[in-house]
Structure formats: structure tokens, C-alpha cells
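Exercise 7 asks you to align residues with C-alpha cells for two separate proteins.
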Amino acid sequence: MNKMLIASILLAITTVNYAQASTEETHNNIAGIFIGTTTMESETNFSYAFEYEYKLSKQWGAGIVYEKTDDANSGEGVDIALASAYLHPWKELRLGFGFGQEKLGGNNETASLVRTSFSYDFHVASFAVEPTLAFDFINDETATVVGIAFAKTF
């Protein structure tokens, strides 16, 4: 009798968990537009970016970022392209670590950079608003990027 009761409970739990999992909509793709500022050596300029992340699992993702700061580098502009790994330790918090290149406009100089980023997602249906803070480490300098991203999950 006890074995039958235990088996029935396990079957009920499994069925409920399966039903919940099948009704939950999963969105592995996150595409967004970032608008903010980049500060480096006490100079602050408007920045914008296009971001994409593919969630590999509930906690891990990988993505790319293309960012422009048109007025930086004495008006010559700066372009940044990087690939990042993301950790989602809680549903709304995203921590990023990426590697990429910074290209200075005008003279086409490039430099390697490392980026750490922190964002918090506020979701409304399949859209998200993400206040973001990032630090770019380029040679001996650090740039601070602050802004907000508007993302769509699909």
C-alpha cells in the first residue's frame, strides 16, 4: 500500500511539473538597443549600441555587442565590437564578461578591450527595459558606460 501511495505521489508531481514546463514560454533570443553615455578621461559622450544574446540555459548566455560613440576621440568617433558571456544568477540580473576591439575613427587604430557589465531587466510581456553599467578596460585606461537598453525577447 505504501509503495502504491509513493508511486502515485511521484507520478502526480511529475505530471504537474511537466504540465508547468510545457505551458511556460521560453525565449532564448534577446535583441536590444542601448542608449547611454561613455566616460573616459573626464570626457563624456553619447553612445548607442545594438546587442544580441542567445540564452544557452536558464543561467548562461552568449552574445555580441556593436557600440558607437560618434563624438569621442576628438570627434573622430569610436566603434566597439565584442563578444560576451552572460550569467543570469537571478532571473532579472545579468552579469557580463566580454572581449573585443575598439576602433578609433580617423586613423583606424585598434585596441583590444575587456568589458564587464551589469544590468537588471524589468519585463513587460516580451519586452525588457534594462538599466546597464559597464566598464571597458583598454590598455591602461578604463571607460565607464552607463545607460538603458530596450530589448525584445523571442
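Second protein for Exercise 7:
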Amino acid sequence: MKKAIIRYEKVLYKEGKGIKILGWENIEKFFNLPTEYTNEPPAFYEMDDTSNTIKIIRETPKWGFTQEILIHKGQIIDAEEFQVLVSVVRQASRRLHNILQKNQWQGKGEIEI
């Protein structure tokens, strides 16, 4: 799998610093991922084929419940919250890597008929 890339721009936002999401690449779609990954936090994935929304699932540190965050192209996020989300995405990437290695589920195949 290629590494996911999120493109952004630094902007002023609500009297502070913000991050405007410009787009992303190499983020797997929900239906291409193992349910072991998508059913528990942390996880992130593209919602569907429109490529307009990614979902980040995390466990909130303060309360311990699962939170789902939708990110859209063009959305502006508080810079501090963006850093937290980047941390969650990194954790989710490591988790997915471990799941794929454990299940030996990786790459594409081809069948000749």
C-alpha cells in the first residue's frame, strides 16, 4: 500500500490558526478494508467513490467513547485539532499495517481465464 497523503493550506480561522483541507491521495475506501480495521478505533478511510469525504474514527482521550469525524475537501479545521487528527491517522496507519501483516492481506492479484 502506498502512504496516504493529505494536502492542506495554513489559513487564519476563527481568530486563530486553521488548516484548510485541499485534498488527499492513497486513502483506502471503506469497502476495500478488513472489518477488523473499520470496526474499531483508530481508523480512517475514504467514504465512497466520490473522493469528497474521509472518516477518522478515534477514541476520545478524556471520555473514552468512539468519535467519528468527517473531513471534506475545502473544510477548515482548527490547527491544534488538525495535529490531533494527524496523530490519530498515524496510529490508525500502524494498526492497519499490523492487521494486514497478520492476515497476509495485501496487494493486488490477477487471474487469467
